[in-house]
Each structure stands twice: as structure tokens, then as C-alpha cells.
TrEMBL record:
<protein>
    <recommendedName>
        <fullName>Trichome birefringence-like C-terminal domain-containing protein</fullName>
    </recommendedName>
</protein>
<feature type="domain" description="Trichome birefringence-like C-terminal">
    <location>
        <begin position="1"/>
        <end position="137"/>
    </location>
</feature>
<dbReference type="GO" id="GO:0016413">
    <property type="term" value="F:O-acetyltransferase activity"/>
</dbReference>
<dbReference type="InterPro" id="IPR029962">
    <property type="entry name" value="TBL"/>
</dbReference>
<dbReference type="InterPro" id="IPR026057">
    <property type="entry name" value="TBL_C"/>
</dbReference>
<comment type="similarity">
    <text>Belongs to the PC-esterase family. TBL subfamily.</text>
</comment>
<dbReference type="GO" id="GO:0005794">
    <property type="term" value="C:Golgi apparatus"/>
</dbReference>
<dbReference type="Pfam" id="PF13839">
    <property type="entry name" value="PC-Esterase"/>
</dbReference>
Length: 141
């Protein structure tokens, strides 16, 4: 519902370019959830046949793509000035479990409760892909 509301606001009241990025998969935890000992210590990307989108990741991704398509169609039918672009990073990031900081996302001397970070992308590779995708999308036609 929130995505639908945001997209409608872009269609009706915005005249620029809006890039909507799809969700980042949450399925890179292995051995448990984030607060139950799960970790993401992979050091290489998955091959295409090693990972499948499922569960909430699949549901949310489908909802995002569907809502975006609906908003884009409404925008074009109404002759709106907004240029809506979908940067679908979900499938590509599903294959990059090696891009998370895991237990190394803080300084070694910090006194912190350790949760392995398998959600954020800090390591080179995945974010470079996002930058390349965005650059190509923003080039003039």
C-alpha cells in the first residue's frame, strides 16, 4: 500500500525522473535467522542455479513489479510528465551473498552485541552493479 501511494504521488505531482529499486533479498542468512546465529560468510557469488527466490522475497518482489507496472501504465495513459524507471536489482543481488559485511561490519575493538549483517551491502561488487545499472538507465535514449 505504501509503495502504491508513493508511486501515485510521483505520477500526479512530479515531473522529473524517478528510479524505483526493487528489494534486496533477505535470504543470504545460513544456519539460522539474523538473531538466531545466522551468518553470511560466502566469499564468492552463487552460480545461477544455486539460488532461488522464494517466500517473502518472491512475494514482495512480485508486488513491487506489479505496482510499478500499474503506475507506469497509469502515468503513460494520463500523459504525465514523470519518467518512471524500474531498477530491478533483486535477481542479481540474490546471486551475491559475498557482498555483505557479516561479522566484520564494525571495528574489532568496539564493544557491541554482534549480529551478523547479511542485509546491507558494503563490499565491492554488488553496489558497483547497481551503479552500472543506474548509469545505463539514466543515459539519454
Amino acid at each position: 500500500m505504501a509503495l502504491r501511494t508513493a508511486l501515485r504521488a510521483l505520477v500526479t505531482g512530479f515531473g522529473g525522473t524517478a528510479v524505483v529499486r526493487t528489494l534486496s533479498p533477505t535470504s543470504h542468512f545460513e544456519g539460522g535467522e539474523w538473531d538466531k546465529g545466522g551468518d553470511c560468510r560466502r566469499t564468492r557469488p552463487y552460480a545461477a542455479d544455486e539460488a532461488r527466490m522464494a517466500g517473502l522475497d518472491l512475494d514482495f518482489h512480485a508486488a513491487q513489479v506489479e505496482e510499478f507496472a500499474r503506475a507506469k501504465a497509469e502515468s503513460e495513459a494520463a500523459g504525465a510528465r514523470a519518467r518512471l524507471l524500474l531498477m530491478d536489482t533483486t535477481a542479481a543481488m540474490l546471486l551475491r551473498p559475498d557482498g555483505h559485511p557479516s561479522r566484520y561490519g564494525h571495528w574489532a575493538h568496539e564493544n557491541v552485541t554482534l549480529y551478523n549483517d547479511c542485509v546491507y551491502w558494503y563490499l565491492p561488487g554488488p553496489i558497483d552493479v547497481w551503479n552500472e545499472m543506474l548509469f545505463q538507465m539514466l543515459l539519454p535514449d
